[in-house]
């Protein structure tokens, strides 16, 4: 294992960030290359926990001559967001300097040429330098996994529609509750930016690019880390990156794989305290009560019920119970396109 610590200058004198990059050298240049990063949103740690389990297994495979494809791992992909706090609250999603989401506004290039990624240069703000650096690290990988998490929910994936269902093995090993595919743009998220340079060349069966949502932000611990780390390991074995005859073969994926436009985002019509009546994994019918919002405690007449618009699977639920107008409450995966689906763009801000 080669460990490199890259230095990213901050935007004022006196501050720099360290980005640790781990490289594992494969023995077969024709084998697929893999790139995995976690915590692009700073404090989303389930992926970091899975990598904590995976990294020693990659070291063992490399030492024992079982690593065929080269693997690059960036366990904390966003040292800027990792260090953003406001008083006691972590704020890892948006860069304080510009309010830009750390997983949006990546450079979209149409071929895998690192010379097209020029933002890792003097005179560029640190968040843009970081994005260009991560894109370069992932540029020649066949398998690109960007490990995130949601508020509350099961494992699930986002990926370009072109890669589905060829990538069902990833959904199967991670026991995903759903796979959401996107066509066109997602506001230049990392997965879109990592896939775009390879779009013209085709050859999609060998390629996997996914945003991997590993459960909820509080699902960080030894049991989930072991399960997810083992799942990622089996995925790499199944794809021929690692040789391991003892690894459990990848089974079929039995969950839903649908366009992300099938997701109904249930939003809060008023602010207040939320009482939820559904949880992730529940299957709801059209009109079923999802939540009650309570702006005036003690006044039953003030309670605003929120119902499911269409039938579907409750995929995720917001962690907060203090809710503002317009906040996302739950994502429900339906059986057809949502009447409120946007044409293009990311599902969330
Ligand atoms: Zn995230």
TrEMBL record:
SUPFAM superfamilies, per the entry: Zn-dependent exopeptidases
Cofactor: Zn(2+)
Keywords: Hydrolase, Metal-binding, Zinc
UniProt keyword annotation of Kinase present: no
Keyword match Ion transport: no
InterPro entries (UniProt xref): AstE_AspA_cat, N-alpha-Ac-DABA_deacetylase
Annotated GO MF terms: hydrolase activity, acting on ester bonds; metal ion binding
Domain of life, per lineage: Bacteria
Succinylglutamate desuccinylase/Aspartoacylase catalytic domain ranges (all copies): 31-236
A Pfam family this chain is assigned to: AstE_AspA_cat
Protein name: Succinylglutamate desuccinylase/Aspartoacylase catalytic domain-containing protein
Organism: Pleomorphomonas carboxyditropha
